[in-house]
Protein backbone atom coordinates (compact mmCIF):
# COMPACT_ATOMS: atom_id res chain seq x y z
CA UNK A 1 0.00 0.00 0.00
CA UNK A 2 1.39 3.39 -0.97
CA UNK A 3 1.87 6.53 1.04
CA UNK A 4 2.01 10.10 -0.24
CA UNK A 5 3.74 12.58 2.06
CA UNK A 6 4.09 16.30 1.37
CA UNK A 7 6.61 18.24 3.43
CA UNK A 8 6.18 22.03 3.35
CA UNK A 9 8.41 24.70 4.84
CA UNK A 10 10.81 27.45 3.96
CA UNK A 11 14.44 27.45 2.94
CA UNK A 12 16.86 26.44 5.68
CA UNK A 13 14.42 24.31 7.69
CA UNK A 14 15.72 20.94 6.50
CA UNK A 15 12.72 19.95 4.38
CA UNK A 16 14.86 18.18 1.76
CA UNK A 17 16.87 16.26 4.39
CA UNK A 18 13.63 15.09 6.04
CA UNK A 19 12.38 13.78 2.69
CA UNK A 20 15.65 11.90 2.13
CA UNK A 21 15.30 10.31 5.57
CA UNK A 22 11.75 9.14 4.78
CA UNK A 23 12.88 7.72 1.44
CA UNK A 24 15.73 5.89 3.21
CA UNK A 25 13.23 4.41 5.69
CA UNK A 26 11.13 3.11 2.79
CA UNK A 27 14.20 1.68 1.07
CA UNK A 28 15.20 -0.15 4.24
CA UNK A 29 11.77 -1.82 4.18
CA UNK A 30 12.24 -2.77 0.54
CA UNK A 31 9.59 -0.33 -0.65
CA UNK A 32 10.24 1.91 -3.66
CA UNK A 33 10.26 5.64 -2.94
CA UNK A 34 10.26 8.64 -5.24
CA UNK A 35 11.02 12.17 -4.14
CA UNK A 36 10.90 15.58 -5.77
CA UNK A 37 11.39 19.08 -4.46
CA UNK A 38 9.87 22.32 -5.56
CA UNK A 39 12.06 25.09 -4.31
CA UNK A 40 11.18 28.76 -4.66
CA UNK A 41 13.60 31.36 -3.42
CA UNK A 42 14.66 28.93 -0.74
CA UNK A 43 17.89 30.66 0.14
CA UNK A 44 15.90 33.77 1.00
CA UNK A 45 13.31 32.04 3.16
CA UNK A 46 11.07 31.12 0.25
CA UNK A 47 8.73 28.13 0.09
CA UNK A 48 10.15 24.64 -0.17
CA UNK A 49 7.99 21.58 -0.68
CA UNK A 50 9.16 18.04 -0.95
CA UNK A 51 7.02 15.22 -2.30
CA UNK A 52 7.67 11.69 -1.03
CA UNK A 53 5.77 8.86 -2.67
CA UNK A 54 6.24 5.38 -1.26
CA UNK A 55 4.97 2.17 -2.79
CA UNK A 56 4.47 0.43 -6.12
CA UNK A 57 1.79 2.80 -7.44
CA UNK A 58 4.00 5.90 -7.29
CA UNK A 59 4.89 6.35 -10.95
CA UNK A 60 5.41 10.10 -10.77
CA UNK A 61 7.39 11.78 -8.00
CA UNK A 62 4.87 14.65 -7.66
CA UNK A 63 1.77 14.16 -5.53
CA UNK A 64 -1.40 15.24 -7.33
CA UNK A 65 -3.68 17.70 -5.54
CA UNK A 66 -6.01 15.96 -3.12
CA UNK A 67 -3.85 12.82 -2.88
CA UNK A 68 -1.46 13.41 0.06
CA UNK A 69 -1.98 11.06 2.98
CA UNK A 70 0.11 13.25 5.29
CA UNK A 71 1.28 16.85 5.24
CA UNK A 72 4.18 17.79 7.48
CA UNK A 73 4.21 21.56 7.92
CA UNK A 74 7.52 22.96 9.07
CA UNK A 75 5.80 26.32 9.38
CA UNK A 76 2.06 27.04 9.91
CA UNK A 77 1.45 29.21 6.82
CA UNK A 78 3.26 26.69 4.59
CA UNK A 79 1.06 23.90 5.97
CA UNK A 80 -2.02 25.93 5.06
CA UNK A 81 -0.57 26.67 1.60
CA UNK A 82 -0.09 22.90 1.03
CA UNK A 83 -3.55 21.92 2.25
CA UNK A 84 -4.98 21.58 -1.27
CA UNK A 85 -2.74 18.51 -1.68
CA UNK A 86 -4.28 16.70 1.32
CA UNK A 87 -6.87 14.02 0.67
CA UNK A 88 -10.07 14.09 2.75
CA UNK A 89 -9.34 12.49 6.10
CA UNK A 90 -5.57 12.84 5.65
CA UNK A 91 -3.33 13.82 8.55
CA UNK A 92 -1.36 16.99 9.27
CA UNK A 93 1.58 17.46 11.61
CA UNK A 94 2.72 21.07 11.95
CA UNK A 95 5.18 23.14 13.94
CA UNK A 96 3.68 26.04 15.86
CA UNK A 97 6.72 28.22 15.16
CA UNK A 98 6.17 30.76 12.41
CA UNK A 99 8.89 32.02 10.11
CA UNK A 100 8.10 35.67 9.66
CA UNK A 101 8.26 37.24 6.21
CA UNK A 102 10.38 40.32 5.70
CA UNK A 103 7.32 42.20 4.42
CA UNK A 104 4.03 42.15 6.31
CA UNK A 105 5.45 40.44 9.41
CA UNK A 106 3.16 42.47 11.68
CA UNK A 107 0.15 40.90 9.94
CA UNK A 108 1.30 37.28 10.19
CA UNK A 109 -0.09 35.41 13.21
CA UNK A 110 0.93 31.72 13.25
CA UNK A 111 -1.85 30.86 15.72
CA UNK A 112 -4.45 31.98 13.14
CA UNK A 113 -2.95 29.51 10.65
CA UNK A 114 -3.10 26.74 13.25
CA UNK A 115 -6.72 27.66 13.97
CA UNK A 116 -7.52 27.41 10.27
CA UNK A 117 -5.93 23.95 10.10
CA UNK A 118 -7.86 22.80 13.15
CA UNK A 119 -11.18 24.01 11.76
CA UNK A 120 -10.71 22.90 8.15
CA UNK A 121 -12.81 19.88 7.16
CA UNK A 122 -10.04 18.03 5.26
CA UNK A 123 -7.63 16.80 7.95
CA UNK A 124 -8.68 13.75 9.89
CA UNK A 125 -6.06 14.59 12.51
CA UNK A 126 -3.95 17.67 13.17
CA UNK A 127 -0.90 17.28 15.43
CA UNK A 128 0.93 20.39 16.63
CA UNK A 129 4.56 20.33 17.68
CA UNK A 130 5.56 23.01 20.19
CA UNK A 131 8.88 24.11 18.69
CA UNK A 132 10.06 26.05 21.73
CA UNK A 133 9.99 22.85 23.80
CA UNK A 134 12.28 21.16 21.28
CA UNK A 135 14.60 24.18 21.31
CA UNK A 136 14.77 24.18 25.13
CA UNK A 137 15.85 20.53 25.13
CA UNK A 138 18.21 20.54 22.13
CA UNK A 139 19.45 24.15 22.10
CA UNK A 140 18.72 24.47 18.39
CA UNK A 141 15.80 25.00 16.04
CA UNK A 142 17.89 23.34 13.30
CA UNK A 143 16.74 19.90 14.45
CA UNK A 144 13.06 20.84 14.23
CA UNK A 145 12.79 18.81 11.00
CA UNK A 146 13.60 15.60 12.88
CA UNK A 147 11.28 16.51 15.74
CA UNK A 148 8.49 16.86 13.17
CA UNK A 149 9.27 13.41 11.75
CA UNK A 150 9.04 12.04 15.27
CA UNK A 151 5.74 13.81 15.86
CA UNK A 152 4.35 12.43 12.58
CA UNK A 153 5.81 8.93 12.88
CA UNK A 154 2.48 7.27 13.77
CA UNK A 155 0.71 9.04 10.90
CA UNK A 156 3.50 7.91 8.57
CA UNK A 157 3.44 4.31 9.76
CA UNK A 158 7.16 4.37 10.52
CA UNK A 159 8.91 3.79 13.84
CA UNK A 160 11.34 6.18 15.49
CA UNK A 161 13.84 3.32 15.35
CA UNK A 162 13.61 3.23 11.55
CA UNK A 163 14.03 7.01 11.37
CA UNK A 164 16.97 6.85 13.78
CA UNK A 165 18.69 4.25 11.58
CA UNK A 166 18.25 6.53 8.55
CA UNK A 167 19.65 9.50 10.50
CA UNK A 168 22.73 7.48 11.40
CA UNK A 169 23.21 6.54 7.73
CA UNK A 170 22.74 10.03 6.32
CA UNK A 171 24.23 12.38 8.91
CA UNK A 172 27.74 12.67 10.28
CA UNK A 173 28.14 11.23 13.77
CA UNK A 174 28.65 14.70 15.29
CA UNK A 175 25.14 15.73 14.15
CA UNK A 176 23.30 12.46 14.72
CA UNK A 177 22.95 12.70 18.52
CA UNK A 178 21.13 16.05 18.67
CA UNK A 179 18.89 15.06 15.78
CA UNK A 180 17.98 11.74 17.37
CA UNK A 181 17.21 13.59 20.60
CA UNK A 182 14.90 15.92 18.64
CA UNK A 183 13.26 12.94 16.92
CA UNK A 184 12.42 11.32 20.25
CA UNK A 185 11.25 14.63 21.76
CA UNK A 186 8.92 15.16 18.80
CA UNK A 187 7.51 11.65 19.14
CA UNK A 188 6.72 12.27 22.79
CA UNK A 189 5.47 15.85 22.81
CA UNK A 190 3.21 16.61 19.82
CA UNK A 191 -0.36 17.46 20.75
CA UNK A 192 -3.41 16.34 18.81
CA UNK A 193 -5.48 19.43 18.10
Distance between the termini: 27 Å
The number of domains is 1
CATH topology: Pyruvate-ferredoxin Oxidoreductase, domain 3
Number of helices: 7
How helix-rich are the residues, as a percent range?
Answer: 40-55%
- Main beta-sheet strand count, sense and barrel state: 7 strands, mixed
Radius of gyration: 15 Å
Can you put this structure into words, describing what you see?
It is built from seven helices and seven strands; from the N terminus they run βαβββαβαβααααβ. The protein has a single domain (3-192), classed as 3-Layer(aba) Sandwich (Pyruvate-ferredoxin Oxidoreductase, domain 3). The mean pLDDT is 91. It is globular. A seven-stranded mixed beta sheet has the order 2-3-1-4-5-6-7, with helices on both faces. The chain has helices at 15-28, 76-82, 110-119, 131-138, 144-156, 160-170, 173-189, and strands at 3-10, 33-39, 47-54, 68-73, 86-95, 125-129, 191-192.
Amino acid sequence: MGMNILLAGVGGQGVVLASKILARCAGARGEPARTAETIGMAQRGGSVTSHVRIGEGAYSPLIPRGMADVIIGFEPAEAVRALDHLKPGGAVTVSDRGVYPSVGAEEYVPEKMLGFLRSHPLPGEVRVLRADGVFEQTGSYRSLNLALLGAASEQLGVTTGEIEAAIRELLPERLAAVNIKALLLGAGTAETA
